Amino acid sequence: MVGAEALEFGGQTSCVEVRAGGGVIILDAGSGIIPLGKSLLEEGVTEIDLFFSHVHYDHIIGLPYFLPAFWNKAKLRIWAGHMLDDATTEQLVDGIFRPPYFPITKEYMRADVEYHRFSPGDVLEPSPGVRLVTGRLNHPNGAVGYRMEREGAVFSYLTDFEHDEGRGDDEVRRLAADADLALLDTTYTPEEYPRYVNFGHSTWDHVGRMCAQARVHRWGMFHHMHMREDIDQAAIESAAQKIYPNSFAVRQGQHFQLFGRTERDRK
Ligand SMILES: [Zn+2]
Ligand SMILES: [Zn+2]
């Protein structure tokens, strides 16, 4: 939702920035990457790793307007896990910068762009000391879930999945286990869900149960339904918090700080 009805939780689509190990890591290039790109440019950030969960429109729509991609001093590494159709990361980005949907092709990006591809299940190291665990999520056309670990601090980004009480849920629990903070797909309410079975999204009650099983310390309801207004999202948040006090609905622009084991010991 965009406009006055959705100012608190926000109307931008998925984009999360993580600063860890000296690196700038971006998860997804939804419309939220547009203001992020402006601030990264102002800050003069020259090295960026961008990871796609998958390439549905709401996760890529901001990339053509991401200013650092057009700055010749920037280095942009774009990562994608094997999607179900087996396209390379470069082919996926080709599909985004494509006339007549966009007037220019990806060759007009002035940043030094590198394309990297991995298989869900791989463990990567985007910045020194940052362990990035990946896994496949249950979503139409496939999606990748991420778990980031550094010095004992754990952050999980698990959007665009539908609970299945099978391998998919096992993978969500594996990627979320003991996380200090996890953001998970809670697009639908339990009441809405029966109308959207197989659309590839979950609900706060299923996610809450999985987070309890996985001993997640704090979890955020993410990927709000696109027609949701603030007033309804706030009601969903308080309903969830009655059962899961360690839950909250993610707000646009919200910041979190996680402390690693050594940083915690110093306190
Ligand atoms: Zn999707
Ligand atoms: Zn999505």
| Helical percentage | 10-25%
Biggest pleated sheet: 7 strands, mixed
Number of helical regions: 6
Bound molecules: zinc ion
Domain count, please report it: 1
The arrangement of helices and strands along the chain is EEHEEHEEEEEHEHEHEH
Radius of gyration: 18 Å
Average residue pLDDT:
95
Global morphology: globular
Taking strands numbered 1, 2, ... along the chain, how are they ordered across the largest sheet?
6-7-8-9-10-11-12
CATH top level is Alpha Beta
Briefly note the CATH topology name: Metallo-beta-lactamase, Chain A
Report on the architecture of this protein.
With 267 residues, this protein is of the alpha/beta class. The protein has a single domain (6-266), classed as Ribonuclease Z/Hydroxyacylglutathione hydrolase-like (Metallo-beta-lactamase, Chain A, 4-Layer Sandwich), CATH 3.60.15.10. The chain is built from six helices and twelve strands. It has helices at 33-43, 89-96, 167-176, 204-213, 230-243, 261-266, and strands spanning 16-20, 23-27, 47-51, 75-81, 112-118, 123-124, 131-137, 143-150, 153-158, 181-185, 219-222, 247-249. A seven-stranded mixed beta sheet has the order 6-7-8-9-10-11-12. β11, α5 and β12 form a beta-alpha-beta unit. The longest helix is centred in the C-terminal third of the chain and has 14 residues, at 230-243. The radius of gyration is 18 Å and the shape is globular. Residues 14, 56, 58-59, 160, 223 line the site of one zinc ion.
